[in-house]
Amino acid sequence: MKKFLEGVLWGAAPFLVAAVALVFAVVVTSCTTPPPGSVPPASVDTATELNAWMSDHRVTDLAGRTVNINDGTVRPPAGATLRNGRLVRTVNPATRVFPHVEVTGADVTLSTLVIVGAATLLSSGQPALVYDPAREGQHGIKLSGAVRTTLRAVNISWVWGDGIYMGSNTRDVDAVGVVVDGAGRGGIVATDVDGAVFDNAYVDQIGLWMVNLEPHGSGRFVRDFRLSRFATDVGSIGSRGPWLNAAGPTLTSMPFDCAMTATIDRPTGIRNTATTRPRTRIAPCVTGITITGSY
Questions:
Q1: How far does the chain reach from its first CA to its final CA, in angstroms?
Q2: Average pLDDT for residues 250-275, to the nearest whole number?
Q3: What is the pLDDT of residues 140-170, one digit of tens each?
Q4: What does the alpha-carbon distance between residue 79 and residue 152 come to, in Å, rounded to a whole number?
Q5: For the sheet containing 280-282, what is the strand order?
Q6: 212-239: per-residue pLDDT in tens?
Q7: What 3-state DSSP class applies to 164?
Q8: Of 268, 255, 265, 254, which is closest to residue 289 (Cα–Cα)?
């Protein structure tokens, strides 16, 4: 009986190997090949046209193409996936609120995206973008009331506002491999969020703060914000601000949530050591922020 079973197994081995290879091929193909119908035609080359396309397609794979978004903001609907392309703005409007991408719904995924704004240095010797209040709402990605947002390998550069802004009761942000390299206001900013995990983040060339936790206003809060494996290269911060800001408002009439909870790694590579610009600025009433690692 033992020899019989061994013979059966040896005889079936080629078929088992072939079956395993077929399953592996199917898995790899499904991960690298865009689903049928997910790649928009070449005529979809503006924010308006891309938004119209995404309204009818759950997955949008740009297949490495560039979409010019001078005409507006890219707005993925609930349940959408937008991936594998470049969203570029080449004009520099003097408009305060004009995000490049805005998410307001649930279960949106942004992956392998490059978002490039039209912000510029004021001089060649300038170490980072300068904060411009007239353009501070031109964020790379704005999450406004978004729920269960997934960010994977998203690269944001040269935007006048924040690299990533989270507000209006945004919940459950899962971000891995985010790069913000050039933002006029903040790198990663939370004003009203419950649950945001950023892993392996890189932030540099920032006008004010690399990380800003700022729940100003009635009913706003920051809960369970986590930032791990946080890095920078040059460590450049503009003329104002520490790398971490979690300070109360300058106007006493504005409410501020002191019950923030956050765990943040110190950024490796930080060079902001000037005594006039402290490394962190945390309001005395805030006791729920844990900073790990060393400079």
A1: 68
A2: 77
A3: 999 999 999 999 999 999 999 999 999 999 9
A4: 16
A5: 101-103, 141-144, 164-167, 186-190, 209-213, 244-246, 280-282
A6: 999 988 889 999 999 999 988 765 666 4
A7: strand
A8: 265
